[in-house]
């Protein structure tokens, strides 16, 4: 299957070029060849896309449509994504460098499920009613207050490059489900799968303007955040950009949701099922080459299993097959860009300079077949202390730091010694300890004896500098709606 790329902007139900005629190249991280020249949106296209989304919301059928009818369209989107899965997973692997095992085995099915899930969620969503008492003009009355949740309007959805389809649809599905309309801004580094979504929206007969996709650079995201006719911004990306988004959104007091970076601790206690914990630790850091917000990038090992665990971990790392993302047996592909690889190599150098002990990796692979791609071997550092840059900053690459701890108290202290608070992982057979540590770790999410198992009803997101707000189930539906109570007094008996 040779995929075809879409390279124009999707505005008001149609693919159109940028008025300026400007384009930018999108590269294949496995060989740095140009995959496509994609239209580069500018301020004119931001205006057109926002106007289209505004019209579709203010005048179009979408927000007024019966819930069951909107849900039907979302289910159709889900079906279409699955029908196009073979093409979409290849596009994602070519564009992001994600092994097919992940794009085909996880991301594209999950993207379809995002739509199916929120189509179903609509029928399960309940709203509040409050009964009370009051006094109106000297007369005792009963009060019925009903909370309506009305669609908020036009949402800007801004996503990063690491899992475009999974993350983009995670935001888009609840947005569309409640009747909002969207301007979606994929990352300039990997926009191809989300651009294809326009084609799928046409097939699913989404009314024009309900979904708009603008490819371009950060300036497009910034213009959407500042735009007075955009009502909400759902952003996933880096902490520094998230802070800019929050500042810029203040001028128009927009509702924002920020899903940002992490430096998540992976805590292994001596009583854990070590085999399972080793598998979990390897997946947690090396899945997507470490380019995952929930990466378990700080491994904390209890003293008594430290040596045994590391030995097994290194054996498991040696088993990872580094190679072409399109090879179905590949476990580990290239990094997104030469610049990003250089940035990660800078961290590796800083680890060496600061005295950490390199156990494996740290270099590019020697395999001649991989020389043109942005490959960097899975890397593990021991002898790491909490002051080192590799332990403090989000690397967003395949670098695992290992620290040892004596007891639960020290594990919790090390786990919380960060400004981030996205995820935490705990490996133990003791359910009491699991729950104690889970409640003491300052993160938005904790996985016990597992990694990234998802129930889409749960609140996904981070504490501290990992973000603001939660997404998933009713949390997402609430984000895209305005609560309004309507008070109806009625005569008391
Ligand atoms: P980034 O912040 O550089 O870019 C994210 C998106 O924002 C891109 O589409 C970019 O074009 C746009 N953008 C850039 N400047 C902007 C501005 N001033 N205003 C509005 N939009 C702007 O992030 P990235 O490098 O693409 O992605 C990596 C980061 O994303 C990592 O920090 C990672 O942890 C984070 N991430 C978080 C989650 C989560 O759910 N918490 C998931 C995936 C990735």
Q: Strand order across the biggest sheet?
A: 14-15-16-13-12-17-18
- Which oligomerization state do the chains in this entry correspond to? single chain
Q: Point out poorly predicted stretches.
A: none
The shape is globular
Work out the helicity level. Answer: 25-40%
Small-molecule binders here are: nicotinamide-adenine-dinucleotide
- Helix tally equals 15
Measured distance between first and last alpha carbons: 72 Å
Largest sheet: 7 strands, mixed
Kindly state the number of beta strands. 20
Strand pairing plus helix content: what structural class?
alpha/beta
What is the mean pLDDT? 97
Beta-sheet strand percentage?
Answer: 15-25%
The rounded Rg comes to 24 Å
Structure description:
The chain is α/β, with parallel strands linked by helices. Helices cover 38% and strands 22% of the residues. The protein has helices spanning 43-58, 67-83, 85-96, 100-124, 164-177, 192-203, 218-226, 239-250, 274-286, 306-319, 338-353, 389-392, 408-415, 431-440, 473-479; strands at residues 9-11, 14-16, 23-27, 34-39, 129-136, 139-151, 154-158, 181-185, 211-213, 232-236, 255-259, 265-268, 298-302, 357-360, 379-382, 399-405, 423-427, 445-448, 467-468, 481-491. Helix 5 (164-177) links the parallel strand 7 and strand 8. The longest helix has 25 residues, at 100-124. It is globular and about 75 Å long. Bound molecules: nicotinamide-adenine-dinucleotide (NAD). Nicotinamide-adenine-dinucleotide is lined by residues 158-162, 167, 185, 187-188, 217-218, 221-222, 225, 236-238, 241, 244-245, 259-262, 293, 394, 396, 422, 462, 467.
